[in-house]
Amino acid sequence: MIFLEMFLAFFKIGAFTFGGGYAMLPLIQEETLRRGWMDVEELMNFVAVSESTPGPLAVNLATYVGAETAGLLGALCATLGLVMPSFLIILAVAKFFSVFQESLVVKGCMDGLRPAMVGMVASAFCGAIPAAFPQGAAWPQLASAGVLAVAAYLCHWKKVHPILILLGCAGAGMLLGTLGLIKI
Question: Model-level pTM?
Answer without folding.
Answer: 0.59
